[in-house]
Amino acid sequence: MSTPSLLILPGDGIGPEVMREVRRIIDWFGARRGLAFDVSEDLVGGAAYDAHGTPLHDDTMARAQAADAVLLGAVGGPKYDDLDFSVKPERGLLRLRKEMDLFSNLRPAQCFDALADFSSLKRDVVAGLDIMIVRELTSGVYFGEPRGIFTEGNERVGVNTQRYTESEIRRVAISAFELAMRRSRKLCSMEKANVMESGILWREVVTEVGRDYPEVELSHMYADNGAMQLVRWPRQFDVIVTDNLFGDILSDCAAMLTGSLGMLPSASLGAPMANGRPKALYEPVHGSAPDIAGQGKANPIACILSFAMALRYSFDQGAEAARLEAAIEQVLADGVRTADLMGPEGGVPVSTEGMGDAIIAALEASL
Ligand code: NAD
User: Fold this and answer.
1) Range 130-242: architecture per CATH
2) Cα(227) to centroid of ligand 1, in Å?
């Protein structure tokens, strides 16, 4: 098999800073675990606009389509606020997601024990939490037609349309069942089948797909109840699958159970390529954090955990992903803290690079 390719797009603000630490971790896996990647780097967002007058050059788009996985830092910043909408840094990211047809958005919510007190919920509710929300990303009410603001009689009316085809539901459901098979074989599907026809169809199609996965325990829940259950007793869930709108809200809600924005990775997956790997874009949930950019304060863990997701979901290296996650858990347990993780109990303050050093030392100790 040829060496798997990884395209790195650091982007703007803290993007290049956190990505520098990821590059060191990738190098460590190459040198110490024999995991070779064909790594290349390119521009996205404001950095691409500065160089080419567009937030994503066509050549970069083609390289992303050809790569086994893409890892992105963050895009945007005040310098680009007044640009025309069509060339804003975020358009580069949106183009990647759209042209790679990344319909399945994976948002883990994992609570590291050492950070349980950062949650707005009580420690005994969130400690040990490890759930995955699968959000449909390319259809639903954010894209459905008709849409717009129209005039009816003497008043305006705002219209958006929730629309899902069977095949759109089926492909994200398959992606969620496959994920459930790799985890604890428990899947909860959330919609509003009580008041929405699209929800009725969603429930029917997910149930049909479930017949191909008899090992997975499938349950259904109305999304409003799901929101309540997520804050009441989140550990009842393992994998949750839901549509674009509900997934947007529920994944943000679940993410905040775990504390800092600097800790949250994500993956967006598309259809399998010829080599069987899904098209894939991995990125931290946070943005380019212009308020701390260039100061060595950024927490690189969200970006490093995004690489761990790439190891698991693109490169079939689940054991090495677990090694990396365990190293991060160890570093946090040792009290190593970037500024965003510093709570009243204190800890060992480190820079972005210092956090990278500590994680590499913990990886070494794991051998
Ligand atoms: P943000 O996520 O960049 O920052 C929000 C707050 O969290 C800031 O106080 C920041 O310092 C802090 N923070 C974020 N990541 C951190 C990290 N790794 N370590 C420590 N602290 C961290 O969101 P924002 O301020 O609303 O947006 C800033 C820019 O980023 C905007 O231009 C926005 O459009 C863009 N943005 C990009 C993405 C993306 O690239 N996916 C996502 C969200 C926002």
Assistant:
1) 3-Layer(aba) Sandwich (3.40)
2) 24
Does 77 contact ligand 1 (Cβ within 6 A)?
Answer: yes
Cα angle, residue 111 at apex, residues 106 and 116 outer, rounded to 5°:
155
Question: pLDDT tens, 80-109?
Answer: 999 998 999 999 998 999 899 999 999 999
298 lines ligand 1 (CB under 6 A): yes
Residues 119-175 have pLDDT tens digits of 888 889 998 899 999 999 999 999 899 999 999 999 999 999 999 999 999 999 999
CA–CA distance, 235 with 241 (Å, rounded to integer):
16
Q: Which fold has domain 1-111+258-367?
A: Isopropylmalate Dehydrogenase (3.40.718)
pLDDT at 1: 65
Q: What is the location of CATH 3.40.50 in the chain?
A: 130-242
Per annotation, catalytic residue among 113, 117, 142, 357:
142
Among residues 248, 282, 297, 340, the one annotated as catalytic is 248
- The 10 Å CB-count burial string (b at 16+, else e) for 340-355 is bbeeeeeeeebbbebb
